[in-house]
Amino acid sequence: MAPPQHRRIIVAPSLLAADFARLGEAAREVEAAGADWLHLDVMDGHFVPNISFGPPVVRAMRAACGLPLDVHLMIAPADPYLSAFAEAGAAHITLHPEAGPDLHRSLRAIRALGCKAGVAINPATSPEVAAYVLDLADIVLVMTVNPGFGGQRFLDSQLPKIAALRRMIDASGRAITLGVDGGVDGATAPAALAAGADMVVAGTAVFGAADQAGAIAALRAGS
Ligand code: DX5
Ligand code: ZN
To answer: How many domains does the chain have?
Structure first.
């Protein structure tokens, strides 16, 4: 792997922080501002204490912009809905190990649907949960807040976990993206990138910025 300063950082703005009355325009704006992926937070009011949106919004975003749709499922169970999200246009589907009885089976199902598969790791969850499914994972997403809401404070306690997963991924020799999600902004991104993340999800820091291109460039630069 390239040393940290030469890695290209993927920036995935989270639509959760956009104006829901104009989601299509919001997606096109971040695309024009240099976003790499569009992160779509799906919440069911059961796995997390908030409800957001489902496959129809994913489908609408597929039509609205050209960005790869990075779908983050915070729903349980997730397995019965994987095909609906794939058909709606998800390029990546990331889920939590706590969402079902068999993470290995879920990841395989995502790949069989033609999507990249991701594992999201909650603050209290051990990185070891990913250790024996790395052959089925394209993305590992470290949650730096408890999932459910945007605008929360970045949990520094998760930095050693990012570093541990970076070591684990490098040792595997696999091309797995290591993302960080929650409370990421210009102040917190540098530590996450230094710990080994190569993808950042940011809602408030991008959609709340007057200069979205500047905010995205700052996240990518880790400054
Ligand atoms: C939290 C979501 C995040 C959230 C990030 O449950 O998974 O993607 O939208 O929002 P910010 O960047 O505002 O913390
Ligand atoms: Zn998310």
So the answer is: 1
